[in-house]
Amino acid sequence: MRYRPISPALLVSELTERITAITGRRRIAVAIDGAAGATNTTELADALVDPLRIAGHAVLRISANDFLRPASLRFERGKEDPDSRYSDWLDLGALRREVLDPLAEDGSGLVLPSLWDPVRDRATRAERVELPEGGVVLLDGEFLFGAGLAFDLSVHLWLSPGALKRRVPDAWALPAYARYEQEVDPSALSDVVIRVDDPKHPARYEP
């Protein structure tokens, strides 16, 4: 694979251009996927907010971490089970129903920005937000691809196995990331792939 070194600022600029070039959609869903704590998915999604607003888009930031299942379900097989982390932590049905379906052409545009507080282990009781036409949802999280979620632009932050092992905060979760690579191959599914072995010096995959 060939990667082009790119500064964080230029990456934000190129992604902003890519998003604003999307046509034929009333509302736009953008996913930024990468290993939690080891990649800068949150920082990248946050950095896109202001440029997109300057470009004339309403923007709603959403974290997949606010759509986790309750602890009783996530930790049914223990708090450090990699298979649960991979397949059972994220409430895919709620994310689809409350965030992505409203963005569809026949959707209401009423998006729920958060569902569950994983720290307090209780519902956030957030109010739905009406996203106008031309609006963009920026969603960041892990294991977002290969599960049938519909995105208009998919960005994957990729780490080499060695970098992942060094940087992931939950070493017990490494088998989950290996399974994701093997079963889903998120780089192959993504519109944009960024290598972030050194987060200060990313590189963009050029096919």
TrEMBL record:
Domain of life of the organism encoding this protein: Bacteria
Q: What InterPro entries does the record tag this protein with?
A: P-loop_NTPase
Stored Gene3D superfamilies: P-loop containing nucleotide triphosphate hydrolases (3.40.50.300)
The name this protein carries in UniProt is Uridine kinase
Q: What is the organism of origin for this protein?
A: Amycolatopsis keratiniphila
